[in-house]
Amino acid sequence: MQLNELVIKADEYDLFHILSGPEKLEFVINALEIGPEESMFKQISKSNILRPDPLFQQEDLQIGVHRLLISAYDDIIVLNSDSLKVMRSFIRKIFRDGHLLVHNTDVTKDRDIDIYRYFKAFNVIKLDMPICEN
């Protein structure tokens, strides 16, 4: 395959975008030899970038017309949403389940990762039993 015949699709480009310089060169060389899809799988198997961290969890929820992205790492929870109302209701639910949330100002919003308008980060203090608001 010639370089001008190489077609890189969206999936391969997403991987290509996060690779370092030498990894990008290796990806292109492998794509010319074995094809872009096989080159992508080869880079994924070699790289630690795309392996999930066992302590890190992330979930993107659709609540009505709004989105809520919940990221949890150890005792820190980060909420990112396009609606303050959805964010507040989730915070109340966590409180009612027996967890205290302390606002964490050390965690800052990253414009590339946190795509929604509203952002809050908390330290989670776990309690033994649910809290009654009465």
Structure write-up:
By secondary structure, this protein is α+β, with helices and mostly antiparallel strands. The chain has four helices and five strands. The protein has helices at 10-18, 21-34, 36-46, 84-96; strands at 56-63, 66-73, 76-81, 99-103, 118-126. Strands 1-2-3-5-4 form a five-stranded antiparallel beta sheet, covered by helices on one side.
Describe this protein with a few key phrases.
35% helix; alpha+beta; elongated; five-stranded antiparallel β-sheet
Can you lay out the helices and strands and say which pair or pack?
Blueprint: H1 10-18, H2 21-34, H3 36-46, E1 56-63, E2 66-73, E3 76-81, H4 84-96, E4 99-103, E5 118-126
Antiparallel strand pairs: 1-2, 2-3, 3-5, 4-5
Strand content: 25-35%
Mean pLDDT, to the nearest integer, reads 79
Low-confidence runs of at least 5 consecutive residues: none
Q: Tell me the structural class.
A: alpha+beta
> Radius of gyration in whole Å, from Cα?
21 Å
Number of domains: 2
What share of the residues lie within helices?
25-40%
The biggest sheet amounts to: 5 strands, antiparallel
Strand order across the biggest sheet?
Answer: 1-2-3-5-4
Counting DSSP E segments of at least 2 residues, the number of strands comes to: 5
- The sequence of SSEs as H and E is HHHEEEHEE
